[in-house]
Amino acid sequence: MGFRWNLRRLMASQDMFQTTDLVPKLAEYGIHLSREQVYRLVTQEPQRLSMDTLAALCGILHCTPADLIEVVEVRAQVVKPAASGESTAGAVAPPARRTHVRRPEGL
């Protein structure tokens, strides 16, 4: 599963085209972020987001968290290693190497 961060699109629907437009509006909700932090919040998908910031964004943009964060299905094939006893069709074993075990002197 993945997600799509729709903050920029929702800002545009409210005629907010600059990230600095968001700084004073967040401050009205008690969220004090620097211009750089707001820029990253708008232009990048956040890995962590406080509930206060999420609630403030929803209040500013008159939306729900589901409008901001859209869950998308990521179709990627997962390759599982074969369990013992299962067929490993197509798998190539590494070449065998002759090894020599040497004991330390004096044992």
Describe the 3D structure.
The protein is mostly helical and 107 residues long. It has a domain at 2-72: lambda repressor-like DNA-binding domains (434 Repressor (Amino-terminal Domain), Orthogonal Bundle), CATH 1.10.260. Helix content is 36%, strand content 7%. The chain has a two-stranded antiparallel sheet. The longest helix has 11 residues, at 51-61. The chain is elongated, with a radius of gyration of 27 Å. It starts with a strand and ends in a 35-residue tail after the last strand. The model has no long low-confidence stretch (mean pLDDT 87).
With strands numbered from the N-terminus, the spatial order across the biggest sheet is 1-2
Q: Which sheet architecture does the biggest sheet show?
A: 2 strands, antiparallel
* Rg, nearest Å: 27 Å
User: Oligomeric form of this entry?
Assistant: single chain
CATH-level-2 architecture of the domain at 2-72: Orthogonal Bundle
